[in-house]
Specification:
Rossmann fold, single chain, alpha/beta, two-stranded antiparallel sheet, eight-stranded mixed β-sheet, N-(1-d-carboxylethyl)-l-norvaline Dehydrogenase, domain 2
Length: 357
C-alpha cells in the first residue's frame, strides 16, 4: 500500500509539471501546413470527384476539375456548393471559408502538381484517361487513381511516368469519411508515396497503404461480407431487416449490409465483385444471382430510389418537402436518411382519443 501511494504521488507530481497542450481539435495524424503540392487536378466531378475536389479546396489547394462537358462540370460544381452550404448550416464551415474554397475551384487540368482521377470504374476508360493526362500534364505531376478495385499498375503502364502513379482510394462521402487508402504499385517511387502521404494528411485524412491487388484492403474484406448477406436473403435464411439489425446490434456496425449496399450502389458492388472474382477465382467473391438480377432491373439503391429498400417518396412526403423543406435535416438532404429499423412506429391517436396500434 505504501509503495502504491508513493507511485500515485509521483504521478500526480509529474502531471503538475506538464505544460498545457492546446486542444485545436486536430488529431495527431493531421498536419497544419501545406506540403509541396499546391495545385490539384480532379478528373471527373461526379459523386466521388466532387467530394475529392471539395476537401482539396477546403484544405487550401488550388483545385482544377475536368469533366466531359460544361453541363457535367456545372452539375458537379452545384453539388460542391450545396455540400459546403450544408457544412456552413451545421456550423462545420464558416461562410468566409466557403467563399474562399469556391474561389479555388476551376474547370481545367493544366499545370497541376497532382491529378486525382475519379472517372467511371472501367479499366479501359481509366487507361485512356491516364494516357491523355500523361500527354498534357507537366513532367513533375503525380497521377493518382481513385479506383476502388482495379489494380493501379494497369493505369501506370499506360503512361511514361509509372514511378509517379499510385492509387488514392477516398471513401464515400469524401467530406465526412476520414480515410484514404493508398495503393503502391511495383513501380511507384518512394518520393511519390511520401509526397502523396503528406498531401493526404494535409487534408485531415488518415492514411493506410495497400499492395496493388484487386480490392486492396477495404473492399477485399467488405465485398465477401456483402455478397454473403445477399446469399442469405436469396436462400431464405433470414429477412433483410433481421440481417441488418443483427449486424448493427451484434457487431456495433453503424448500418447493416443491405443498407450499405443501397448506399454504395448495387451496380458498383457487382462490378467490384466481378473484378475480384476474375483476379482471384475464389467463390467468396462470386456475385449472387439476386444481385445481378436487381442490377439488370435497375434497382441500384438510393441513387435510383429503390434497391433492397424502397426510397421513393410518397405524395405526402413530396408535399411536406415543398411546404417545409426536407424533413430529414441537413444530413438527410445530402445522403438520404433511412428509417431506423429498430425504431418503433409512433402510435397515432384515434378519433375517440385512444391510441391506435
Amino acid at each position: 500500500m505504501r509503495r502504491r501511494r508513493e507511485r500515485q504521488e509521483q504521478a500526480r507530481a509529474c502531471n503538475r509539471q506538464r505544460l498545457p497542450v492546446p486542444n485545436n481539435h486536430v488529431p495527431r495524424f493531421y498536419t497544419l501546413h501545406l506540403v509541396t503540392i499546391r495545385t490539384v487536378g480532379v478528373v471527373g466531378c461526379g459523386l466521388m470527384g466532387s467530394g475529392i475536389a471539395e476537401v482539396c479546396a477546403r484544405a487550401g489547394y488550388s483545385t482544377l476539375v475536368r469533366e466531359l462537358d460544361d453541363q457535367l462540370l456545372a452539375k458537379g460544381r452545384q453539388r460542391i456548393e450545396s455540400s459546403m452550404t450544408t457544412a456552413v448550416g451545421r456550423g462545420k464551415l464558416a461562410e468566409k471559408q466557403r467563399e474562399e474554397a469556391l474561389e479555388r475551384l476551376r474547370g481545367t487540368t493544366n499545370l497541376c502538381d497532382l491529378v486525382i482521377e475519379a472517372a467511371t470504374e472501367n479499366p479501359e476508360i481509366k487507361k485512356r484517361t491516364f494516357a491523355e493526362l500523361d500527354q498534357i500534364c507537366p513532367p513533375h505531376t503525380i497521377l493518382a487513381s481513385n479506383t476502388s478495385s482495379i489494380p493501379v499498375i494497369q493505369m501506370a503502364s499506360a503512361t511514361r511516368r509509372p514511378a509517379q502513379v499510385l492509387g488514392m482510394h477516398f471513401m464515400n462521402p469524401v467530406p465526412v469519411m476520414p480515410l484514404i487508402e493508398y495503393v503502391r504499385t511495383l513501380t511507384t517511387s518512394d518520393a511519390t508515396l511520401e509526397t502523396a502521404r503528406a498531401f493526404g494528411e494535409s487534408l485531415g485524412k488518415r492514411i493506410i497503404i495497400s499492395k496493388d491487388r484487386g480490392g486492396f484492403i477495404v473492399n477485399f474484406l467488405l465485398i465477401p461480407y456483402l455478397t454473403e448477406a445477399v446469399r442469405m436473403l436469396e436462400q431464405g435464411f433470414a429477412s433483410k431487416e433481421d440481417i441488418d439489425v443483427g449486424m448493427m446490434l451484434g457487431t456495433s456496425y453503424p448500418m447493416g449490409p443491405f443498407t450499405l449496399l443501397d448506399f454504395v450502389g448495387l451496380d458498383t458492388t457487382l462490378f467490384i465483385a466481378d473484378v475480384l472474382f476474375d483476379e482471384f477465382k475464389e467463390s467468396r467473391f462470386a456475385a449472387p444471382t439476386l444481385l445481378r438480377q436487381m442490377v439488370a432491373a435497375g434497382y441500384l439503391g438510393r441513387k435510383t430510389g429503390r434497391g433492397f429498400y424502397n426510397y421513393e417518396s410518397t405524395p405526402r412526403d413530396r408535399h411536406r418537402r415543398c411546404a417545409h423543406g426536407s424533413r430529414r435535416g441537413a444530413a438527410g438532404r445530402r445522403y438520404g436518411a433511412v428509417r431506423n429499423p429498430l425504431r418503433r412506429p409512433r402510435a397515432r391517436p384515434r378519433s375517440d382519443g385512444a391510441a391506435r396500434d
